[in-house]
Amino acid sequence: MSRPAADRVAALAGRVEPADRRARQAAAERNAQLAKPHGSLGRLEALAVQLAGSSGRCPPPTPALPAVLVCVADHGVHAHGVSPWPQTVTQVMATRIAAGTASLGALARTVGAGWQVLDVGCATAPEPHPALTAARVRAGTADWTREPAMSRDEAARAMLAGADAADGLLSAGVDLLVHGEMGLGNTTTAAALLAALTGRPASEVTGPGTDSDPTAPERKAALVEAARARHRPDPRDPLGVLAAVGGLEHAALAGATLACAARRVPVVLDGVSSVAAALLAVTAAPTVVDHLIAGHRSPEPGAAAGLAALGQQGLLDLGLRLGEGTGGVLAVPLVIAAARALADTARLDDLALE
Predict the structure, then answer these.
(1) Residues 215, 311: one domain?
(2) How many Å is the maximal CA-CA distance in the chain?
(3) Which of 142, 319, 351 is nearest to 246 (CA)?
(4) 132 pairs with which residues across the strands?
(5) In angstroms, rounded to a whole number, what is the distance separating the alpha carbons of residues 178 and 81?
(6) What CATH number is associated with residue 213?
(7) Alpha carbon of 177 to those of 23, 87, 137, 299: distances in Å?
(8) Exposed site from 5, 82, 181, 230, fewest CB < 10 Å?
């Protein structure tokens, strides 16, 4: 008999190791020896040290095959008008993203990254496509304002679906994974997750999402606060938080993050849903944080709160709030540049100075 999904998630979390201190120290020392003023490459130097610690090597490997894993699912809370778009948009956009005709495709091609879509819970299955994998746990979550979003077993199974998808990409040679997601209503769900995990008031982690109505944040925050009062999720229990107020795509991204961290492959975060998923993974295995890179700072307030909880600062701040992995993938060249600068820059000892 196979092990319960929750036990398999716990086993995966247990395989995540912290950053390699010796590699970090070697990278810091190498940075100080390069033929440039110390600190003159700013945050790229710190990023290179982090990459060394994550990989356990100095200099760290330069990413050569980055890819975006886009997890898609629907949300029962959509029934409360948290998005101005019909729920069928999730299904349509999943197919568009897979085909490369959404914004992600344009940006990923620009930076030389691939992508894979994982349907972990669309209300209606998207059209088949070679870049789309079906791993459907259920057809969207329940309305978490009235009942739990899903069962603990479903949350664990969604995490494992994401882990399996990430493992497949890594086994195919992907060496830098970017978070991506799509799902109508998922920024409201991300706010519910972040409120539960950080303990902050709903008003501090809830933003407009795709809704231009100025009353949207207040309406959504009321839903988030009511759900927290109803379910009282334990912030130390990631599966419990997911089951109460989570999304299937958040669960899948959290699982993918655990899988990458367990194999010492860095993960680039995107917007608020990505940050919420990363915080779930860190709750399951605190050393995951050593393998995370915040790609950008989303204007959604929950993203800032989540990044603060992770001790992270976005590499970019472009006002991006689309999702799909668009902000994360734009940071890929910076990650590559940090690794390459540490590896390829001459050292002072190599210079023939008179």
Answers:
(1) yes
(2) 76
(3) 142
(4) 117
(5) 29
(6) 3.40.50.10210
(7) 21, 27, 23, 22
(8) 230
Reported as a single tens digit per residue, the pLDDT across 195-235 is 999 999 999 999 998 777 888 899 999 999 999 999 999 99
Same structural domain, 42 and 190: no
Q: In the structure, what pLDDT confidence band is assigned to residue 353 with cuts at 50, 70 and 90?
A: low
Say whether the peptide bond before residue 333 is cis (omega within 30 degrees of 0): no
Indicate the helix (H) or strand (E) that contains 349: none
Do 152 and 19 lie in one domain? The reply is no
What pLDDT does residue 222 have? 97
Residue 1 reports pLDDT greater than 70:
no
Catalytic residue (choose from 154, 204, 324, 354): 324
CA distance 281 to 286: 8
Structure tokens at 196: 């539960």
Residue 351 banded pLDDT, cuts 50, 70, 90: confident
- The mean of the pLDDT values for the chain is 96
Identify the DSSP state of 291.
Answer: G
Task: Tell me, yes or no, if 29 is annotated catalytic.
Answer: no
The residue count of the chain comes to 354
